Amino acid sequence: MEIDVTIFEMGPRDGLQNESKFISTSDKVKLVNLLSTSGIPKIETASFVSSKWVPQMADGEQVMAGINRKSGVAFTALTPNEKGLERAIRAKADEIAVFGSASEGFSKANINKSVKESLQTFRPIVEAAPMPVRGYISCITDCPYDGPTNPTQVIKVAEELLDMGCYEISLGDTLGSANPNTTEKLLSALLSVFKAKDLAVHFHDTQGKAIENIDISLDFGISTFDASIAGLGGCPYAPGARGNVSTEAVIDFLESKGFHTGVDREKIKVAAEFARSLTR
Ligand code: HMG
Ligand code: MG
């Protein structure tokens, strides 16, 4: 059966980055290996950011060196700047991601740059990268510092990221506060400018609305969904935000709607159980 939707696994990065107890490199490697044998095609495996800002992700090089590079699976990494790109190249990341924000407050808190400064930092990285680059936009409907986000702010940042060469924009509901109304309003605006194939959605599930929001995204033709095994996570610079929608829930939902994810649910259950054991 042809795979018609893509699950982009966030657990090893977005899921673990906020854990206060340091998770050993070997446990991180084991989690990635469990995920990569499940049929998930893309796994965000490392984050080449400052270890002063996010200590949990300090062992990205060792994780990338320790995992089994299952063929057909892309092992990806976050890169906020040139130093991040250099680390990702040395670690042989298959794909990288720059991460900006639609709102000024979160941009400053997360990467210590205004939106404009962040885009100026990203352009040379995206242009120089020898691998595909994804672009995240955080705070697509709400910002913890600035309040509601106007869809025009998201459009502006997405236009720039696509123009510099990002192959896809992942729309980050950083706080998990998007609801069916705000999601519909945002996607109507975005889809009047961009094609669905240029967009992915990245819902956190703080208020339990992520699956409804994914359902709406499907109606708009979006087919790439970020999710985190066992619903792990939250962002250290988004107070109160919970994990991404769980990978298991997204797979069950998509399969129930007749889509084929290509993921083995039994293997995912095993990975989810292991993921839970890491944060207990
Ligand atoms: P800064 O302090 O402005 O940068 O941080 P700097 O250039 O002055 O560097 C400060 C120190 O960090 C220096 O070290 C640099 O060498 C080092 P020192 O001289 O003090 O010893 N440094 C680095 N080290 C390793 N790798 C690097 C790197 N860059 C600088 N790449 C910076 C700016 C961007 C580095 C910092 O703000 C940072 O690392 N931020 C990352 C925050 C983060 O990871 N947040 C979570 C991920 S985003 C997210 O979760 C949202 C998302 O899921 C979507 C959604 O849900 O919305 C993607
Ligand atoms: Mg996130």
Question: Can you describe what's shown?
Answer:
The protein has 280 residues and is an alpha/beta fold. It has one domain: Alpha-Beta Barrel (TIM Barrel). Helix content is 41%, strand content 17%. It has helices at 11-15, 25-36, 60-66, 82-90, 104-111, 115-128, 151-164, 180-191, 210-219, 247-256, 265-279; strands at 6-9, 42-47, 74-78, 95-101, 133-138, 142-143, 147-148, 168-173, 199-203, 224-227. It has an eight-stranded parallel beta barrel with strand order 1-2-3-4-5-8-9-10, surrounded by eight helices. It has a two-stranded antiparallel sheet with strand order 6-7. Strand 2 (42-47), helix 3 and strand 3 (74-78) form a beta-alpha-beta unit. It binds 3-hydroxy-3-methylglutaryl-coenzyme A (HMG) and magnesium ion. The site of 3-hydroxy-3-methylglutaryl-coenzyme A has 28 residues, from helix 4, helix 5 and strand 5.
List the helices and strands and how they pair.
Elements: E1 6-9, H1 11-15, H2 25-36, E2 42-47, H3 60-66, E3 74-78, H4 82-90, E4 95-101, H5 104-111, H6 115-128, E5 133-138, E6 142-143, E7 147-148, H7 151-164, E8 168-173, H8 180-191, E9 199-203, H9 210-219, E10 224-227, H10 247-256, H11 265-279
Parallel strand pairs: 1-2, 1-10, 2-3, 3-4, 4-5, 5-8, 8-9, 9-10
Antiparallel strand pairs: 6-7
Helix pairs in contact: 2-3, 2-11, 6-7, 7-8, 8-9, 10-11
